[in-house]
């Protein structure tokens, strides 16, 4: 009760939770549309328009969550914003280049002459790859404490590859749900290959995180914490087994089951994120600065919270509305 009585405690915690929620939603939603972009070279030429159509109504709104997360970091935890972006300046710059390239390619491929369309498809893939790799690299460096050593950079490069493959998997899972026929069958094949990257990526991060610091190790492996936390890895293993079973038996006559891999992948991402949040709390910069030390003044946070209570439901509302309106299978891409 003391936590909720002191604004200097509950306000930083609330903003950390909102920022974490925004990052998780971004990773899942923009993760699948980045994944669809990564799969472009594997699709037949006559299938690429359907890949774009499957994410066309959503990809712009999905990136709103990244803007919200960075905005919350800036206004609620200014010292942490400076430390994180200073340490990750290069990968952040490369990520923005990738996202810009994706946006330009997405629009120009619809207006370019047929002979130039393959170039914009290639640019769309390149932007997706650059953004995914940059995000994976930043994740690895964050886990390692934002310090640039050879070992930490090697781990970050490894997480860059694994997150990229993980995005391709959730992108394939999205296509399984949003397409049918030959393209859906092809997406099942892509998911069967991509699931290994997802498993290895989550496994590598889960194994590495406790060894970042003795504090995190003790949070996971001391008693009784170890017993309380054991359902998380067990549930993750169950989801991996379910995913493996699902993609081995798709496509299925009952198309409602086509959503199974995507929903399970979302749950797996959420569990991995929850594990990371538990590991690093209360630090916003690992082992350097806590959310309470980095937080802005309670008076400022309270005013920002009032604005957030209006902005967040609006973002949730139009995101949910777009997914509701454009539910069902992706149809032929038309611009007339």
UniProtKB/TrEMBL annotation:
It is found in: Cell membrane. Keywords: Cell membrane, Membrane, Transmembrane, Transmembrane helix. Pfam families: Cyt_bd_oxida_II. The chain crosses the membrane at residues 12-39, 83-101, 122-144, 150-177, 189-208, 228-247, 259-281, 301-326. Its main location: membrane. It is a multi-pass membrane protein. The keyword Transmembrane helix applies. Belongs to the cytochrome ubiquinol oxidase subunit 2 family. This is Cytochrome d ubiquinol oxidase subunit II. It comes from Roseobacter sinensis.
